[in-house]
Amino acid sequence: METRTAIKWTKKNLLGIEDLEAAEISAILEQAHSFKSVLERTIPKVPPLRGKTIVMLFCEPSTRTRASFELAAKRLSADTMNFATSTSSFLKGETLKDTARNIEAMKVDMIVIRHGCSGAPHFLSNCVNASVINAGDGMHEHPTQALLDVYTIKEKLGRIKELKVSIIGDIAHSRVARSNILALKKLGAEVTICGPKTLIPKDAEKMGVKVTYEISEALKDADAINILRIQRERQNEALLPSLREYASRFGITTEILRKYARKEVLIMHPGPINRGIEISQDVADSEFSVILDQVTNGVAVRMATLFLISMVK
Question: 286 lies in which domain range?
Answer without folding.
Answer: 143-290
